[in-house]
Every structure is written in structure tokens, then in C-alpha cells.
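For this section, I looked closely at a protein sequence along with its fold in C-alpha cell form, which I now present.
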Amino acid sequence: MTTASVRYIVDDVDAAIDFYCRELGFEQQMHPDPAFAMLTRGDLRLVHRAPAPGDLGLVQAFVNSFWDLDRDGAEQFASPLALGEWLVAHDLIEPGTRLSNADLRRVLDIREGLRALLFVNNGVTTDGSAIERLNRALRGPGLFVQLNATTPPDFRARRRDLDTALALIATIVAVAQIDGSWSRLKACSGEHCGWAFYDHSRNQAGSWCAMSVCGSRAKARDYRRRNKSLHERRQLQ
């Protein structure tokens, strides 16, 4: 029997464990730290992860508007209308803002450029062309900064449109790169994955969205590759 795995970002991992186990009959299999848990019921496996902290959670949600574990992941930005609905739901643009196909292409270049940066955080080689498209798409008017002696910088916008929304996302990334939290936001290096997760581990050693999902697949793939190589060497002897 094949086990199906589903991954969730949840604000309170302990509360999620309590609900799924008490109300829905799941069993806790792993809960090594407050930010991660794995539950099972029959052939269904649930993986719960805590989100990235603060505003960085918006960047994580933006990148995870598409992820493709089995090449059939759902694209939340399937059209300019769908993109607009997502941006309105996250309070980034005014309701009724009209977006074009060119706007959609621009947003996708930014999203996939950010994912390329998150892959680098996970030890993957830099995709220079994706990052070049990212920076080209980010050029435009956006936020301005208000400074104060006793409070953090306040980023404000003259209007709530697409330029401002994208500038806000890029600003969150810039601040996270400065304060050091950016390196913990990673894209899973599992084949056909790329799901953005925040590495809450003390030594920042996390590589997979879930070891039970992409980590197990990678181990199985390496095992098959080693066996194939050994078989080929024996045939040559």
C-alpha cells in the first residue's frame, strides 16, 4: 500500500497535533521539536511545519503559491484574476485592481527568482538567469522608508498596487538577509519539489521539507543508483 504524504504550514504545531489525533484519529509518529511533527492514519501521512517568523511568512506563502512534488502541484497564480485574488487576500493590493498577463509573467519571474535564492540557501548551485529575471522584474516604483530613533524602520506606500506589493515582498527579503533569518528559509531540494520551508533547527542542517517525503525519496534514489552502478561493474568483470 502506497502512503500519501501531505504537508501543512501551521501556526501552532502542538494544537494541530491535538486536533488531528483527538478529533480525526491520527497518531503522532514524530515531534522532535516544537516546529515539526509527523502524524499518520492508515496510508495517509501528515507533516506539520511552523511557518517562517514575522513578515518572512509572507515571502514563504508567496513562493509556496506553487510547488510540484509529483509534477501535478496546484498553481495558485493560474491567471491574472487568480493572482489578484491572492494579493487581495494577503492585503497587498486594493480589491478590484486589474492585472494583465504581463503582470502575471512579472510576478512569476519574481516568485521563481526567490525560489532560486532559497535553493542556494539549501546548497544548490545558483541559477543566475532566474535571479537576473527576478531583479529585472523588481525594477519599479514602490515603497519609501520612514525612520525613527526609537522604533524600527517603517516602510510605507503611496498606493496599494502591484509595484508596491512586489516592493514590499522584496523589502522583507532584504531585511531578512540583513538580520540573518533569510538563510533559514530554504527550498526543498527534493526532486520535483522546491517547497519553501523555514529551518527552525538549531544547527540549520535541514535539507528537506520532510525527511519522510523528499528525504526518503532521495535515499531510495541513491540506493537504486548505487545498486545499478555495482551491477554494471560486475558485468564488466
Residues 211-236 form the longest helix (26 residues).
